[in-house]
Amino acid sequence: MEHTGLNQTDDGETVLLCYPHLQGSCPRLNRLPVVQLTMYFFISTMILMTVCGNLLVIISISHFRQLHGPTNFIILSLALADCCLGCFVMPFTMVKNVEGCWYFGQFFCQFHSSLDMMLCAVSILHLCLISVDRYFAICEPLQYRTKITTFKVIILVVIVWLYSFAFSFGLMFSGANSVGFEEFILLNSCAGSCLLLFNTEWGIIAPLVSFFIPGGVMSCLYIKIFHVARKHAKVMSDRVATVTCSDLKNQASEQRERKAAKTLAVVMGGFLLCWMSFFLILVIDPFINFTTPVEVFDTFFWIGYFNSTCNPIIYAFFYPHFRKAFKIILSKTCGIKMAKNIVLSL
């Protein structure tokens, strides 16, 4: 008898299965084909925008010497994390959410969950580094060049990646996140499932370490930055009557730093807004016996992922240097394609 992927329940209702040839298979989501195609189209577009947008940031900073600097090297690493998320995490999550099945094996389920957690931790810690960088640039400008050097930034970026890797993969592959919930996981797992569960302890520790503490540090630093920037603006307005050439240069430099701080504050604010709901649910879920609907988890996951799509758009909108770099790269790419088409047509 040929397997059709269907199963009959006791009530006579037809159920689609993830693995019809396996006993104990998870049921597939019974969505209309038009709904599935629509979901695939919109999510694929979001993934493509994430990858292409962050590649533009990576190429811009790598190619143009004017963009070489401590802050932009952190942004380069942040864009790399977002690009990796778009390439190696989001496509598999898309299939899982649209089909309602995990087709990629249990080992890759753990690897995927670990990589997802790692890239999220990398992003928030990079934003934390950026806030520290902006703090010294605005609040202690005379010490900025000595305290924040490219070499120090590269060392810190490497530490962030290594720490995030060790924390995320160590937690998931050691099974520490699910200690005490082995029976619950056994009862709720089936062929085609990929459960990401945290017990009460790690449900608090993981979000605290990877999101809430760095987020609190960033918020405090940016409050201090804007307080100092406002004070500088007031001082400059009081001295407007006796402005010298040197003062004008300092004022222009301070304005650039303030604008950069505002831009990066928008990036930080976008990250916190996008991921806040997911991390709150992650903390609450163990206390309500994991009764949060899967659809709610999936929705907050994609809102978080959307932040990686938005970052390059924020840079292009607020940062003139990035906007110019994007235009040059895109115009050159279009020019090369046109030249190739002309050659092929001859």
From TrEMBL:
<dbReference type="GO" id="GO:0001594">
    <property type="term" value="F:trace-amine receptor activity"/>
</dbReference>
<keyword id="KW-1133">Transmembrane helix</keyword>
<keyword id="KW-0812">Transmembrane</keyword>
<feature type="transmembrane region" description="Helical">
    <location>
        <begin position="39"/>
        <end position="61"/>
    </location>
</feature>
<feature type="transmembrane region" description="Helical">
    <location>
        <begin position="114"/>
        <end position="132"/>
    </location>
</feature>
<feature type="transmembrane region" description="Helical">
    <location>
        <begin position="153"/>
        <end position="173"/>
    </location>
</feature>
<feature type="transmembrane region" description="Helical">
    <location>
        <begin position="300"/>
        <end position="318"/>
    </location>
</feature>
<keyword id="KW-1015">Disulfide bond</keyword>
<keyword id="KW-0325">Glycoprotein</keyword>
<feature type="transmembrane region" description="Helical">
    <location>
        <begin position="204"/>
        <end position="226"/>
    </location>
</feature>
<dbReference type="InterPro" id="IPR009132">
    <property type="entry name" value="TAAR_fam"/>
</dbReference>
<comment type="similarity">
    <text>Belongs to the G-protein coupled receptor 1 family.</text>
</comment>
<keyword id="KW-1003">Cell membrane</keyword>
<dbReference type="InterPro" id="IPR050569">
    <property type="entry name" value="TAAR"/>
</dbReference>
<dbReference type="GO" id="GO:0005886">
    <property type="term" value="C:plasma membrane"/>
</dbReference>
<dbReference type="InterPro" id="IPR017452">
    <property type="entry name" value="GPCR_Rhodpsn_7TM"/>
</dbReference>
<keyword id="KW-0675">Receptor</keyword>
<feature type="domain" description="G-protein coupled receptors family 1 profile">
    <location>
        <begin position="53"/>
        <end position="315"/>
    </location>
</feature>
<keyword id="KW-0807">Transducer</keyword>
<dbReference type="InterPro" id="IPR000276">
    <property type="entry name" value="GPCR_Rhodpsn"/>
</dbReference>
<keyword id="KW-0297">G-protein coupled receptor</keyword>
<dbReference type="Pfam" id="PF00001">
    <property type="entry name" value="7tm_1"/>
</dbReference>
<keyword id="KW-0472">Membrane</keyword>
<feature type="transmembrane region" description="Helical">
    <location>
        <begin position="264"/>
        <end position="288"/>
    </location>
</feature>
<protein>
    <submittedName>
        <fullName>Trace amine-associated receptor 4-like</fullName>
    </submittedName>
</protein>
<feature type="transmembrane region" description="Helical">
    <location>
        <begin position="73"/>
        <end position="94"/>
    </location>
</feature>
